[in-house]
Amino acid sequence: MVALRFLIENRNTVCFTFLVALVLSLYLLVYLFSHTPRPPYPEELRYTAIDESGVEITRALPNVGEAQKMDDDEEIILSVVIPSYNETGRILLMLTDAINFLKEKYGSKWEIVIVDDGSTDNTTQYCLKICREEFKLDYRQFRIIKFSQNRGKGGAVRQGFLHIRGKYGLFADADGASNFSDVAKLIEAVQTCEVSSRGVEAVKPVVAIGSRAHMVNTEAVIKRSMIRNCLMYGFHTLVFIFGIRTIKDTQCGFKLFNKPAILKIFPYLHTEGWIFDVEILILAIRKRIQIKEIPISWHEVDGSKMALAIDSIKMARDLVIIRMAYLLGIYRDDRKC
Ligand SMILES: Nc1nc2c(ncn2[C@@H]2O[C@H](COP(=O)(O)OP(=O)(O)OP(=O)(O)O)[C@@H](O)[C@H]2O)c(=O)[nH]1
Ligand SMILES: [Mg+2]
């Protein structure tokens, strides 16, 4: 009775205290679940490749801001980052498709950077072997960064993008679910938007993302399991609620960035798990970077690394955390992480 009277008499103070406690608990909760990429181990700042005489070498990685050119002064137009986790079974087809296209289109002005994310199936050794025997490529075109511990797809893509040399950077899944030649469409889309009225010195940052939104009612999606499609719709709804309203397909593993966009996005990326695509888009939107969504071809490939139930829960949680962390100032888009 006394307590009730106290509450009624001091209701303004009580409400205020309750509100402060709520905000503090929310802040604490988001802070606890928020993410900072772990600093790379020294060996993760080196790449492994094959030299001109076929010998395996390890060298320091260049940094994206510094390295504009190849060692022999030839400019790299396109760098392709392939996050790879236990991909010995799938990567050969993808690489064959990519390398054939790159050779024909860009001669030698391209590079592939595979980021082996702590695989346990010898992905690195397998890739070095096919690089030497099948593709006959040396360190100028083909590099591997090997993580000693798994970080997640976002961590792998981030590390790759911080050390590429190309004018444009693409990340592409190792399963070859997209047609690699569609990269030409993405580059064209970026090139039409990046020209600044202030001349070549001031190229505008632009991102072009592959999109499967046009395929929602096609065989490729319908053939997927019902649970998978339900989770997909649930995820789209959550992405919509939590702020990305203009992009239909946030998750496609085929995204292209020009160098100014790479420098404005990747050093600031916190998320190392599957949901990193959404943080990339949030950063691009916050920094007013133009995003072009381009329909691409795509087909289902067996051997997905996603654990449907557990990864979906983690993605939903991380999506909420990213949004709240930016809202509460725990993540900042002007502070490199
Ligand atoms: N770096 C890293 N990459 C991963 C990890 N798991 C998967 N990948 C890579 O992420 C890419 C996409 O993985 P998939 O298993 O095809 O998953 P997905 O394309 O999102 O989903 P599906 O539509 O089921 O294929 C591949 O290149 C994988 O090797 C991981 O833990 N770390
Ligand atoms: Mg896939």
Describe the structure in your own words.
- By secondary structure, this protein is of the alpha/beta class.
- The chain has 2 domains: 2-33; 42-327, Spore Coat Polysaccharide Biosynthesis Protein SpsA, Chain A (Alpha-Beta Complex), CATH 3.90.550.
- Helices cover 41% and strands 16% of the residues.
- The protein has helices at 2-9, 11-33, 91-106, 123-135, 153-161, 183-194, 219-222, 226-241, 259-265, 276-286, 308-327; strands at 46-50, 56-60, 78-84, 110-117, 142-147, 168-172, 206-211, 254-258, 290-295.
- The strands form 2 sheets. Strands 5-4-3-6-8-7-9 form a 7-stranded mixed sheet, with helices on both faces. A two-stranded antiparallel sheet has the order 1-2.
- α8 (226-241) packs parallel to α11.
- The chain is elongated.
- Magnesium ion (MG) is lined by residues 173, 175, 177, 301, 304.
Computed CA radius of gyration, to the nearest angstrom: 22 Å
- Helix-strand pattern: HHEEEHEHEHEHEHHEHHEH
For the termini, the CA-CA separation is: 53 Å
Given helix and strand content, the structural type is alpha/beta
CATH class categorisation of the largest domain: Alpha Beta
Mean pLDDT: 90
Low-confidence stretches: none
> What spatial form do the alpha-carbon principal axes imply?
elongated
Pathway: Protein modification; protein glycosylation
Organism: Saccharomyces arboricola (strain H-6 / AS 2.3317 / CBS 10644)
Pfam families: Glycos_transf_2 (PF00535)
Domain Glycosyltransferase 2-like: 79-192
